[in-house]
Design a protein that fits this description.
- The complex is a heterodimer of chains A (272) and B (297).
- With 272 residues, chain A is mainly α.
- In chain A, 85% of the residues lie in helices and 0% in strands.
- Chain A contains 14 helices and no strands.
- With 297 residues, chain B is an alpha/beta fold.
- Helices cover 35% and strands 28% of the residues of chain B.
- Chain B has a six-stranded mixed sheet with strand order 5-6-7-3-8-9, with helices on both faces.
- The longest helix of chain B has 16 residues.
- The chains are: A mainly alpha (272), B alpha/beta (297).
- Chains A and B meet through helix 1 and helix 6 of A and helix 2, strand 5 and helix 3 of B.
């Protein structure tokens, strides 16, 4: 199991350079801030505080999970190439797919730790202060799971730009661009199209599918559509109800595989 | 059966429209130490990358113990020391070497290996605190992992102090004695001279020489220099040998390798008139200059 050897070394590196600690700290702080800031509408909507907290954290995770993942991943290939250790690594019997898989395993584990502790802490506090039902606990677990999946997608996309870029600095720039496109610009573009279309065929039929094709939006839809009360709290019922329930989970399940395939293809062409 | 570990035949490599390797032939046998010399850009690193399977060949064949470059079997048989090697600064020497051992599928004595290269004290220190020479030693330690059939060392002495260089070459000797084929790309000409069995010289993607030091000298026709110190009459010696007078007491004679003994006898016949004789055979630097400047046909 060569990829496990790489995963172990990568995990050690994440722990040593305080990445794991920083990522977890960022998640805890943001999740706590949102939980307390968003606790006001509990009474008016008739949902418990954990539900409101999960809704706020879903919005947060759309931005933060891809960002943390890209920050971990952009250096994965370009950094090794720049240090000159990539050539040596590739002269060993481990295949390129195994190397990527090893890094992915470690990075995904780090994301899982950060997400679980971050959202878990905020969720526990919200539940303690404002109560939690069976459904809202499920929503929290779903949030953690889907956040890790979303992070996984952007890890693989990060490896892809890391393989395509000529230097680690260029890879960082490309990663920032990727984040902007997937998380901000894509939605703005769709929104613009919907406004232009004024409720025609595009808005009715194509728009929901285009939306779910973006992993960040699929993440949002999955969390919102699965929980009625979360949907109520977020006010995003419309788009979610236009799609079959399997659409968002399918999108989030396919994207990591797709991203890994892209990264593997890009890595194949890297000549250290 | 053959003991040829590395076999390169008519290797061609293009980068864009530029041809960087022009039909290179080179073999390295088990236990043989071959120096690969050449200017920057002569194609040494490209050649090594091709053997490692890191870059595709444009034509010709490369075989490592009968396997295709980049195949699992070839990679398992090959050890590589990159030029100015670097590792992740957050890992310790022991951790880095353990990772390499696991990747190679070896159960290695990590502490013993690190002691062998003089890093016993730095075993559990982070590589970020290592000096350049220490990183190079760590790189060398991973070459010794397992029993490679072929070792490719790219500028192995860069960044090493003279004592470390001696250590390095004794480790290379050990490797070769164990049956490993060693290919050393180097600029450090004088050290390579004493420590290798054969010398290959590259120039602008062509292999312009591949022979033993003596063979190269004979082909190049470089002359041996003799410096004769006389006790009395330098002029008589100049007359007898056709040498060149350096100062009042010495004469310098340049001679082909074949005529050396003849000339020595002539000088010996002069008896007491000669105080001392120094003989300087052509050095690797002269040879290198000769082959690296030679016009391509």
């Amino acid at each position: 199991m060569r990829f496990l050897a790489i995963a172990q070394a990568e995990m050690r590196i994440l722990a040593r350079n305080r990445w794991l600690f920083m990522a977890t700290l960022i998640m805890v702080l943001f999740a706590l801030a949102l939980t307390f800031a968003g606790s006001a509408p509990t009474g008016t909507l008739g949902v418990d505080m954990l539900t409101v907290s999960v809704t706020s954290m879903t919005t947060l995770s759309v931005y933060l999970a891809p960002l943390l993942a890209l920050m971990m991943a952009f250096d994965a290939v370009a950094g090794d190439a720049e240090r000159g250790s990539l050539g040596l690594l590739l002269s060993y019997p481990a295949g390129r797919g195994e190397i990527l898989l090893g890094k992915f395993t470690a990075h995904l584990a780090a994301l899982t730790i950060a997400m679980t502790i971050g959202f878990g802490t905020a969720g526990a506090i919200a539940a303690y202060m404002g109560g939690a039902g069976h459904e809202s606990v499920l929503a929290l677990l779903r949030l953690i799971g889907t956040s890790v999946l979303l992070g996984g997608v952007f890890l693989t996309l990060g490896y892809m730009v890391s393989s395509l870029a000529k230097s680690a600095t260029a890879a960082a720039g490309m990663a920032a661009g990727l984040w902007l496109i997937f998380v901000v610009l894509y939605d703005l573009g769709l929104l613009g199209a919907v406004v232009m279309d004024t409720g025609g065929w595009f808005t009715e039929t194509l728009f929901p599918w285009l939306m779910v094709a973006n992993p960040a939006d699929a993440f949002r839809l999955w969390n919102i559509a699965s929980s009625e009360s979360v949907a109520l709290a977020s006010g995003m019922v419309g788009a979610a109800s236009a799609l079959p329930s399997w659409a968002a989970p399918l999108s989030l399940a396919i994207w990591p595989l797709l991203g890994f395939a892209f990264a593997r293809l890009a890595f194949r062409r890297v000549e250290p | 059966m053959t003991d040829k570990i590395l076999e390169i035949n008519d290797l061609v490599k293009d980068r864009g429209k530029t041809r960087v390797l022009h039909g290179v032939d080179l073999t390295v046998s088990a236990g043989e130490r071959v120096a690969l010399l050449g200017h920057n850009g002569a194609g040494k690193s490209t050649l090594i990358k091709t053997v490692l399977g890191l870059t595709k060949l444009g034509g010709g064949t490369v075989k490592i113990a009968g396997h295709k470059p980049g195949s699992g079997a070839a990679r398992a048989d090959t050890a590589f020391l990159p030029e100015a090697v670097s590792f992740h600064p957050a890992l310790t020497g022991r951790e880095q070497l353990t990772l390499f051992a696991r990747l190679a599928g070896q159960k290695a004595d990590i502490a013993g290996l690190l002691e062998r290269v003089g890093l016993a004290d730095a075993l559990d220190r982070r590589i970020g605190t290592y000096s350049k020479g220490m990183r190079q030693r760590l790189g060398l330690a991973q070459v010794l992992l397992g029993k490679p059939k072929l070792a490719l060392l790219d500028e192995p002495t860069s960044g090493l102090d003279p004592i470390s260089r001696q250590d390095l070459y004794s480790i290379i000797d050990e490797l070769a004695a164990g049956g490993c084929a060693v290919l050393i790309a180097s600029h450090a000409l004088t050290e390579v001279e004493a420590r290798t069995d054969r010398i290959a010289i590259m120039r602008k993607g062509h292999l312009v020489a591949d022979d033993t030091l003596a063979g190269l000298s004979a082909k190049a026709g470089l002359r041996t220099k003799m410096r004769v110190r006389v006790t009395s009459d330098a002029e008589a010696l100049v007359q007898a040998t056709g040498g060149r007078r350096m100062n009042g007491a010495s004469v310098e004679i340049e001679i082909d390798a074949a005529g050396k003994m003849e000339m020595l006898r002539k000088i010996a016949e002069m008896g007491g008139a000669v105080a001392d004789v120094d003989i300087t055979p052509p050095r690797l630097e002269d040879l290198y200059r000769f082959y690296a400047k030679e016009e391509l046909h």
